[in-house]
Structures are given as C-alpha cells and as structure tokens.
UniProtKB/TrEMBL annotation, chains A, B:
<feature type="domain" description="Cyclic nucleotide-binding">
    <location>
        <begin position="16"/>
        <end position="120"/>
    </location>
</feature>
<protein>
    <submittedName>
        <fullName>Crp/Fnr family transcriptional regulator</fullName>
    </submittedName>
</protein>
<dbReference type="InterPro" id="IPR014710">
    <property type="entry name" value="RmlC-like_jellyroll"/>
</dbReference>
<dbReference type="InterPro" id="IPR018490">
    <property type="entry name" value="cNMP-bd_dom_sf"/>
</dbReference>
<dbReference type="Pfam" id="PF00027">
    <property type="entry name" value="cNMP_binding"/>
</dbReference>
<dbReference type="InterPro" id="IPR000595">
    <property type="entry name" value="cNMP-bd_dom"/>
</dbReference>
Length: 197, 197
DNA sequence: TAAAAGTCTTAAACTAGTTCATTTTTTTTC
DNA sequence: GAAAAAAAATGAACTAGTTTAAGACTTTTA
C-alpha cells in the first residue's frame, strides 16, 4: 500500500518511538485532517479554543502572543516534521492566547480532540508515543527556559543560529527579534556586530 | 491495607490521572526507593548521570546550574507533592549539568531507570500517567519560557508571589533572585519597592 | 511596473538591571 | 549564647537593551 508523501512523513515521525502494523497505520491516518494555510494567513487566533494539534508536512509557521502593548512574542517557529498547536488550550479547552500564522504556504495534518482521545482507546501504543514526544519537548523547553534567563541576547542569537541553521534563513530578522526577546533595532545591531567578528 | 504517609501521598498523586488496583499499588510502591537529604546537602551534582526521578514527600529542594562565571541559575524549587530530577540526563544517560540541593531536611521517593522501564512493562497504564504528567509540565514550561522573555523582573517577582505563595516564604531572597534571573541586590530593591506600593 | 507597505540600518537619548563596595541584620555553629 | 558566617540593604558608577526618529532597501500588490 503506497502512502502519499505527507502521510509517509507523519508515519515515519511516529515510527521513531513506536512500531505500528499496516492496519494501525491506516487507522491512524484515517483520524487525521489535511489542512492548507496560505502565507500570511492564520491557522488559529487568540480567543479561539484550539480544536486540533498539528504536524507540519510543508512550509513554516510562527506561534506567538501579543502582550498588553501589542508587541509580539514568538514562542516557536514550526517547519516540516515539527508538531505545533496550543497544547494548553487543546487540553484545558480554555481560549488560547496564541496566534499561529504561516510565514510560507504550508501544509499540515491535524488531529482533533475527539480523535486524539479515540486514538488512545483504539491504539493504546500511542500513550507511549505521546509520553516520549512530550518528554523530549519538555527537555527542550527546560533548556530553553534557562537560556532565556541566563544568556545575553547576543549569546541567544548565536545559539539559535547554531541550533537551527535551516530555520534562520527562512524567517525575517524582525521575527527572529520577537523570538529572541529583543527589539528589531537591537537585533540589527547584534547581527552586524556578530558578522563583523 | 494501611499505607504509610509518604506512600499515600504518591499514590494519591498518581491517582489523579489513572486508577490502580490494590495489587498495582503494592507493585508500584515496591519499585520505589526511600531517600532522605539533610538541609544544605546534595541529592545530586553536575557531572553525575542521573539514576533516579524523584517525588518529594517532605521538605524543599532547589534545582540549579552554575554558569561559566560560577553564578547559580535556579530552574525550580521542589516541595511536597512535586516531581523533580534531571529528566534530560535520566533519559539520555549523559552527565547532568544540574545540582539538586535540599534547602530544608527533605524526604523523597525515587524510581530508578530500570524500575521506570519495568513499570511500563508491568503496569502499562503508567504510560498514560506519564503522558499526562509530562503534558502538564510542558504547559507550565511553555508559559514560563514566555514569562522569562516578555516580563520585567518586577513583573516576574509579582507573578511568582501570586502563583507560589506557599514557596516564597520558605526560600531566601538570594535563591529567589537566582530563580527570577537577576542579582540579589536588584531583588532586594524590587522587594522593598513592591512592599512600599 | 510603479507605488505602497513592510523591513533593515543607524544614531542619540534613555531605562532596567549589573557591579562593586560598605554596613546592618539574620542565621548557623560550636 | 557568643562568635562566625551568610543574607539583606543601600548607594554610586556602569552596561545591555529600549525608544524614537529618519532614511535606505526590499517585497508585495494593483
């Protein structure tokens, strides 16, 4: 049975942590919705209750909040083979504080809350998959929440460049500033300084 | 069957997400090690490969790294009913970069890596427990890594006070500064300013 | 393909947070 | 319970990052 590219990508991703039979793969795929988002349009907006968790098969999106002064703070850039969404809202059913906007034409696979719950009933192995997925994300976030506090903006920029060389040339400097946590003006200074070194 | 207080505490904690039979409770408890740490002594130190994940039944501990200049950065305070350890090292078997030191005489229940893996084999329900536990921690960390970047030190202090009123009066101002991400001197200024308001 | 909108750069004046040094207060230890 | 050690307060000089403003460069859109 031939899988289309996007399904192959998600099955490979899941396959890193658990083994699925052909039947289970079919079942899993049947629970996923295909979503396309054009560049500069929203996958979701603050105020909505998140109905899906997403896996990106193509493109790039930014996940961000706006603070009281309307200044954006980007919490992640999501590209191919990444999972994204607002887990807090997805789980608690409270309105999200996040916007997710495509920075390139993008394609995603979404799982609804109903199907997410069904998945654990039908294929309990997925408890293990998500246990490990969340464990790994947690390790990343713990590291990142320390970086945020203990490194200077310049160090955070160098670290981002080293860790995500494939993402840095797909995003604007302004968005990078909103991720690093500084003004676009100061980002510009840092970049010209680092390039001069 | 009467459980001792510490075991009752951990069984209640687990019971929030999954239901265990009496036999499963006994089995689970048999996989836990009891650990005591005196105030100002280490539960673990950087360089070690973490062998346990811990649940605190009594006391308070701080989890921290030292940066290149030897300045401590506290990533969490763990009190009764909290889970702690260095998950990155526990999972990857790489040396930890964290110290965990008791700030009060403390008592913990630890699960070794071998028993952690055994647990999933013997009581697969625990995949669900950890899936939900990690999911919730993740939600907290995502929130916190945004706070770190988007709030001022004064706002982070007010937020900590509001969220952890039970922890704030058990720790020193110096440790709080190392958690908030500022110098003890500036922490002192913020506190006297906020109290004057 | 021209005009409009958004992004990037540079610079001067400003503010949040640091550093260093000293004194007072609290906690620990024998 | 006195002496020693650690934590907290205060202040002056400093630095990383912000704000505001203006001009140059790039991308988007009609």
């Amino acid at each position: 049975m031939e899988l289309k590219y996007s399904h192959k990508l998600i099955i490979d991703n899941v396959g890193r942590f658990i083994d699925l039979t052909e039947l289970e793969k079919q079942k899993y795929i049947s629970l996923l919705a295909e979503v396309k988002v054009k560049k500069k349009t929203f996958l979701m907006q603050a105020g909505e209750i998140t109905k899906y968790e997403y896996f990106i098969t193509k493109g790039c999106l930014k996940v961000y909040t706006l603070d009281e002064d309307g200044v954006p703070h980007i919490s992640m850039f999501a590209v191919e083979d990444y999972w994204t969404g607002d887990m807090a809202s997805f789980i608690t059913k409270e309105p999200s504080r996040y916007f997710i906007k495509a920075t390139e034409d993008s394609e995603l696979l979404g799982i609804s809350r109903a199907n997410y719950e069904l998945l654990f009933k039908e294929i309990p192995k997925f408890e293990k998959f998500y246990r490990i997925l969340y464990q790994r994300s947690l390790i990343n976030y713990i590291r990142r929440s320390n970086y945020g506090i203990s490194l200077t903006a310049e160090e955070r920029y160098i670290e981002f460049k080293r860790k995500y060389p494939n993402i840095i040339n797909r995003i604007t400097q302004k968005d990078l500033a909103a991720y690093i946590g500084i003004t676009p003006e100061f980002m510009s200074k840092i970049i010209s300084k680092v390039n001069r070194m």
